[in-house]
Amino acid sequence: MNTYITINYVILGVLFAFLLAEAMSAMAFLYDKKSLPNVKKYLDPIWAVVGTFAVFFVVNTEVLYPSIMPNIDYLYVFPILLATLLFIARNMLLVFSEYIWKNSKFSQLLLARVYSLVSFVIVIILLGVFLSIITGLGANASLNSFSFSAFVSNYYSIGFIAGILLIAFGLMFAFYRIKKLKVLSPISTILGLLIFVFSMHGLGLYVNYITYILAAAVAAISVMYLITGKSRREAILVTAFLSVLSINLLNYGKVFGTRSLSSFINNSAVNSAGLIVTIIGGILLTLMLVFFLYMYKRPELETDYQKDYKDEQNPFSNIGIANLYIMPKNNKENGKEHKKRKNRVR
Fold first, then answer.
1. What is the arithmetic mean of pLDDT over 39-48?
2. How many CA atoms lie within 13 A of 279 on its CB side?
3. Phi, psi at 162, each rounded to 5°
């Protein structure tokens, strides 16, 4: 195995693990509005890390496979530009929901749900591009044009994406410990896994016992959450990372269906410098990842978002129990005093 290609696969695995976390956040906002404070607590540390890993992967790919970039531009320039614009919109919505919503006509929940829809489109676009690059589905033989109709008319490609979204929906319950109809967690996860593995076979992607072991581990997470009500968020992220990495390693060097990724690799001296920069950048991003995992392990204290959300839902939440009794009494007394003063004036 080529060291450069393997490192690039590792970076891609981390990126898609974080994208899975964002997909689960988006689903949680749409599924259960009560999950907003809890999801915001975990989403805010991750959103900048996702963007950083995305840029890191793109730069690393450009250095590693410069000769493949013209083909990528010809084939996927529109979906990549669309995903980039939506990514900017996603960042704006997160900032608005964090700072601006308090003094605007838009509620935090509304902004979070618009963010959810934007995130859904981004995830679907990236999954489609990823699948097309590996299988060559939708790309013509000369790799200079992409047929969207050819891509969507293949029901295995639709099943691949739909299976991942069903898995994300099922894991969402365990990741954010959502109790609303949590029986849907194993149902959605197992159904998504069956569709996903079936679609991989149909697309000609190589699978083996490792694929089935990881699928069983993912299913076990949802089943255990249904039975015990407990889950390990780190286990979900690690399993997602290993799943993406295994797909790439099992189909090692496969690109555009029949071509070898090694034929596009940069063999110049730039690779050595690129490897050094990748290692340094990887260490820094790993430290960010460790910090992110640390954020998950913090005590479940009430955050500012939870307090603000409660205030928005109940504007009288800041009034103490004693004041509920004192204020009416004071109003009556003030009214009597006001009446007496009026009588005295008269």
1. 72
2. 8
3. -65, -40
